[in-house]
Amino acid sequence: MWNHPRVTETDGRAGWSFPEGSVGHDESVKGYDVEATDGKVGHCSWASYAPGESYLVVSYDDGHDHVHHVVPAGAVKNVDHERRTLTLGVTVAEVKATPTHEHPEAPVDESIVEQFDRGMLGGGGLWPYTDV
């Protein structure tokens, strides 16, 4: 978890929180399949649930290595606990355009949060990511 004073619910940073009611206090999405709007992108290898600081680490095998990407929890549109699936409101390419992460359980570096902040489009949305 990062120490980012601007990341709070009252500041309108819902992009860094799971949709309300999607994940209970005793539930985890680790290991769930992750589906983008245009197909399966990988699986959730790690998640942080702190309100205003929540994110997923989406991992997949690129043919040679395991690749991990940080995705703000606000990208999640649906959590199906029965099917163990997270549905995102973004494409596979948009997930793969997010910053890579060295290890799923490693803390998210402040620079990754800043990359999302710089890439906010459309007047404050966190998605899609572009490093501008």
Set out the fold topology.
Layout: E1 33-36, E2 39-48, E3 55-61, E4 66-72, E5 76-80, E6 85-88, H1 92-96, H2 110-118
Parallel strand pairs: 1-6
Antiparallel strand pairs: 1-2, 2-3, 3-4, 5-6
- The tally of beta strands, per DSSP, is 6
Q: Which structural class is indicated by helix and strand composition?
A: mainly beta
Assembly state: single chain
Poorly predicted residue ranges: 1-12, 120-126
Distance between the termini: 24 Å
Strand composition percent: 25-35%
The number of distinct helices, counting runs of at least 4 residues, comes to: 2
Q: How confident overall, as mean pLDDT?
A: 78
Helicity, in percent?
10-25%
Radius of gyration: 14 Å
Order of helices and strands: EEEEEEHH
Write down the overall geometry. Answer: globular
Major β-sheet annotation: 6 strands, mixed
Within the largest sheet, what's the order of strands?
4-3-2-1-6-5
Description:
The structure is a single chain. The chain has 132 residues and is mostly beta strands. It has two helices and six strands. The protein has helices at 92-96, 110-118; strands at 33-36, 39-48, 55-61, 66-72, 76-80, 85-88. It has a six-stranded mixed beta sheet with strand order 4-3-2-1-6-5. Mean pLDDT is 78; it is low at 1-12 and 120-126.
